[in-house]
Amino acid sequence: MKKIILDCDPGHDDMVAIILACASDGLDILGITTVAGNQTGDKTLLNALKTLTLIGEKNIPVAGGFDRPLTGKLVTAPHIHGLSGLDGADLPDPEIKPLKIHAVDFIELTLMKADEKVTVIATGPLTNIAVLLLKSAQIKEKIERIIIMGGAVYESNITPSAEFNIYVDPEAAGIVLNSGIPVTMVTLDVSNKAIFTLEDIDNIKSLNGKVSRVVSGLLRFFAEANIKSFGFEGAPLHDPITVAYAVDPDIIETELYHVDIETKGEYTRGKTVVDVYGVTKKNTNAEISVSLDLARYKDLITGAVKKFD
Ligand code: RIB
Ligand code: CA
Questions:
Q1: DSSP class per residue in 62-102
Q2: pLDDT tens across 22-45, in order?
């Protein structure tokens, strides 16, 4: 089994990533940590606890992390995820409590005592992961790979230049990408095409179980927000691609590039500058997603929801 830590900012697609991770027999989830992003830190933590309660998963440690980026003010995404961060359905009140320690301390303690390297999956702004790398010199040796949902070669969403997770904390993203740890970036270029259409969402609704009813309601909200904001055909399930890749790396194709993060540009702060032609001659530092097996991906997600219904 692959040991993982999932750091996230639930968020609708983060919620599906949590469900997919919990449904994946090949993953040993050492913990779930949360960070401010789609909504404030208190809300993303609450949403993670609610999601685990919904699927009856009460044995995974949960720890809350940073409620703001390394520099500047927090930017959230209520236009996409609503005021709660998970608008669109009623989730159960949490039946589990978060740990009293900070997410960064939890991840450090967990990785240091793990008997093998751990894969870190990050589907929100990278604040927690960056501070972990700054705090502990030894921690790099304990990390197999960091799989992030973030960035883009050509696409954008929060500004014309940047993808949301990177934009919220570009300094943190730079620390992660310059860490020397193997990184896979699931980018918007691929995830904006990972669309669950309204028909797909109705198919989940038709399962008519306790989880599928809630998930379909949440995904419809998420779809309508994305249709309104970007003219998409439905809900782009960005985050679960990272988990699907951890389970089965062949579900996406990747290419190795050098990536820099713009932190200063008036119009370009948060842009992932991907050197697709190698013109900088810099060493490559990330596997960048270039395609996804969408049919297999949809089956994985639907199967995960069914498993907890
Ligand atoms: O840009 C999409 C990413 O930002 C996703 O992870 C979404 O959940 C938000 O965090
Ligand atoms: Ca996210």
A1: EEE--SS-SSS-----HHHH-SSSSTTSPPPPPSS---SS-
A2: 999 999 999 999 999 999 999 999
CATH number at residue 209: 3.90.245.10
Task: Show the domain range for 204.
Answer: 2-308
C-alpha–C-alpha distance, residues 8 and 124, integer Å? 5
As for how many domains the chain has, the answer is: 1
Which ligand has the minimum distance to the alpha carbon of residue 188?
A: 1
Say yes or no: CB of residue 38 within 6 Å of ligand 1.
yes
Percent of the chain with pLDDT over 90: 100
Cβ of 165 closer than 6 Å to ligand 1, yes or no, is yes
Is 189's C-beta closer than 6 angstroms to any atom of ligand 1? no
pLDDT tens-digit readout, 73-108? 999 999 999 999 999 999 999 999 999 999 999 999
Q: Which residues are designated catalytic?
A: 238
Q: What is the reported pTM?
A: 0.98
